[in-house]
Design a protein that fits this description.
Number of strands: 7
CATH topology of one domain: Aminopeptidase
Largest sheet: 7 strands, mixed
Strand order of the largest sheet: 1-2-3-4-5-7-6
CATH superfamily of one domain: Gcn5-related N-acetyltransferase (GNAT)
Structural class: alpha+beta
CATH class of one domain: Alpha Beta
CATH architecture of one domain: 3-Layer(aba) Sandwich
Strand content: 25-35%
Number of helices: 5
Length: about 160
């Protein structure tokens, strides 16, 4: 059975499900900025912050569903003048990353607000071939909140 991928708002997901997802050490492995415990208060703060981006920019991170089940979150968040794409999946759904990203990138190509997409990956992330297959090109190494990241860019116009 093929997984139907859909996007919805994070506020529609049970906070305990997000907390459990973000508390998994396999998720934190490539998230150097994940330095706190995910409890219900942390999830509430997270969802409120993500909803603020939706109000400010008309776009933000989604909850991602596969056949109606929550598998993670991701999408586009405006950082200054750039639309950054991020994806954080539950370990059992890591294999859906390419399909989900393809759908999100198709969204970016269709949305005139997004002339290009950036991707920030920690250097610990060794599998980066999919970025090249999508057409993204390495731009530079940057520091974000005191942590090094590899920055890629994909033109969507």
């Amino acid at each position: 059975m093929r997984n139907e991928i859909t996007f919805t708002r994070l506020s529609k997901i049970e906070p305990s499900e997000i907390a459990s997802h973000m508390s998994d050490p396999r998720v934190a492995e490539h998230m150097p900025l994940l330095t706190f415990e995910w409890d219900e208060a942390a999830v509430t703060k997270f969802v409120v912050a993500k909803e603020a981006y939706w109000r400010r920019d008309g776009l933000g991170h989604w909850a991602i569903l596969s056949n109606g089940d929550y598998v993670g979150w991701g999408g586009f968040q405006k950082e200054r003048d750039e639309w950054d794409y991020g994806l954080v999946l539950k370990p059992a759904s890591f294999g859906l990353g390419i399909r989900i990203s393809r759908k999100a990138i198709e969204f970016a190509f269709a949305d005139k607000r997004i002339p290009f997409v950036t991707f920030l990956l920690p250097p610990s992330r060794k599998k980066r071939g999919a970025l090249g297959r999508f057409g993204a090109r390495f731009e530079c190494e940057i520091e974000y909140e005191g942590v090094a990241f590899l920055k890629y860019r994909l033109e969507t116009e």
